[in-house]
TrEMBL record:
Name of the protein: Dye-decolorizing peroxidase
Statement: the UniProt record of this protein carries the keyword Iron: yes
Lineage summary: Eukaryota, Fungi, environmental samples
UniProt domain Dyp-type peroxidase C-terminal: residue ranges: 23-80
Domain of life: Eukaryota
GO CC field: cytosol
Cofactors required: heme b
Amino acid sequence: CPFAAHIRKMYPRDGAKDPANNLSEEQIDSHRIIRRGIPFGREVTAVERLAGKTLEQRGLLFVSYQANLSMGFQFLQQFWANNVGFPGGHSGVSPGVGPIIGQNSNDDGREIEGFNATDQSAALQLGTKEFVGSSGGEYFF
């Protein structure tokens, strides 16, 4: 699994146990969450597909469950998904922001490394548009 992949950034497993990261198994496990997504909206129509533009509202209702909000979803988004160097310590590869939920802080585009099996340092340009955009959120206790 590439180090820049969404699943690897959100649950780094053995990759974060690299001495360069200073993370123990207990620290990694303290940030685990249970996540569920429920799609809403109609399927993309042939007209939308041809135009390359959506006309209907659709998306994914995301829910996460964790024991501690600041150590769960908030931490994962801020310190792992948006950290261009996490998980680090892999032959100088900079994974970049999370390819799915990472939030770009500038307009220079999003670049990730570690996807090319023959050249881990080869960069993949994702563009400036984020794949996931938040339109609101609530905490329920």
